[in-house]
Amino acid sequence: MGKKLDITGETYGYAKAIRNTGKQYHGSYIWEFECTLCGKRFEAKIRDVRYGSVKSCGCWHRKNLDKMDTDEKFGQIEGTNVSKIVSKKIPQNNTSGHKGVSLAKRKGRKDTYVAYIYFQGIRYHLGSFKNIDAAVNAREEAENKLYADFLEWYAEEYPERWKRLKKRD
């Protein structure tokens, strides 16, 4: 159980401590705070406010999301994460060693390799294959068909972003 601190009047980020509510959650006291940006009162764990994971009632985050280019910030354009397309890095949870190919283990049946690709927010199932080479070929063929024109358009439309992406890869 955490130590009972009196932080009344202290400000962390945009959250000014008003009072301890007497409630606890996972060993951390819940306090009532006042947002110094908008005046709204809200409750939060003292630990979250003191360590910076809660900075305000949420108005600061919403206000800044409206201002920033979320597509650029999160790498999304037309429902596609361009940095993931360009990157040759294989995701950590990948078991086949190839992007867009996974091993489907089926009880009582032979294992198959499933090929898939994501593009513009849609997952395309490319087929189930008996061997990994066929699945990888299907994935590469789909990459050439779906990604080539899109990446060419992206490079022309957003040359600065494209340069940064190519530099990282």
Automatic annotation (TrEMBL):
InterPro entries: DNA-bd_dom_sf (IPR016177)
GO MF terms, alphabetically ordered: DNA binding
Name assigned to this protein: AP2 domain protein
Organism in which the protein naturally occurs: human gut metagenome
